[in-house]
Design a protein that fits this description.
Helices cover 86% and strands 0% of the residues. By secondary structure, the chain is mainly α.
């Protein structure tokens, strides 16, 4: 199996791709958690005002 790209460049490209993917995943997870927290706080407020 022959690679057209030199191995150091290929390795650094893979590392960059992995870090970018991890950053995207963490951003998505943080956004999901924030929205869940917002929903929970809104529900608590609604129950407090109704009760």
């Amino acid at each position: 199996m022959t690679m057209t790209m030199p191995s150091p460049i290929l390795a650094s490209a893979l590392v960059l791709a992995a870090t970018a993917a991890l950053a995207l995943c963490s951003m998505v997870l943080n956004a999901g958690r924030r929205s869940l927290i917002r929903i929970r706080t809104e529900r608590n407020r609604n129950t407090k005002t109704q009760g």
